[in-house]
Fold:
Amino acid sequence: MLYRQSAPAGGQQNANRTALATLIALWGLHVYATWGQVGLFGGDYARWLHEIDRFAHGEVPYRDYYWAFPPMSAWVLGSIGRVFGSQLAVMSAATVLLSLLIYVAFFIYASQLIPQSLLLETVLAGVVLSAAYAQVQSVPLPIGMYSPAVPLGFLLLLCALLASLHNWRHPRNSGAALVGLLGGLCILTKQDFWIPALYLVIVGAFLQPSQAWATAATFFVTVLWEF
Structure:
């Protein structure tokens, strides 16, 4: 089954609200506890902050400096830097927002698949594990991870998965096209995501053959846009 069995509406809403409130509270506590703690200003996070700063000041990735990933994360954070400035506080706020979007997407995913009785425990485990793992060879959130391509790509992958679940339940050509678009954007963000992104496209084609053209077309057009 792609979805858990439905619970009574009132009980389900209460469980969802409790789990979501717990998730946001833990996220906020972690951000508050780690804000400004970047440790030694070196390593990968110092490198990408410098690279985003160069983009924000008009330089072009691949032409003016080396960028080890596809361009999406440089475009997104670099554009934020151009508008609001590329100071550490601005980049921290941007990655804080990114982390919140990931947690909310994870909550939506879990609430659709996990039994109501286990939803709170699942959310707690997910928050604790992700907050701990983000600091492996990195720094605490909000900066987190060795490249912004990782959390941004994962957010897009979660959104592609949610779009797939919705489209399997309510098939539409627009929904299939959205899956392909999000899958393509995953690969435009970090090349490692090509396997799960392509998997979603292939599985969607098998489950909804009549919509395979819409998913495949938007997927390959989005990927080819990089070149």
Residues 148-227 form one domain. The chain has nine helices and no strands.
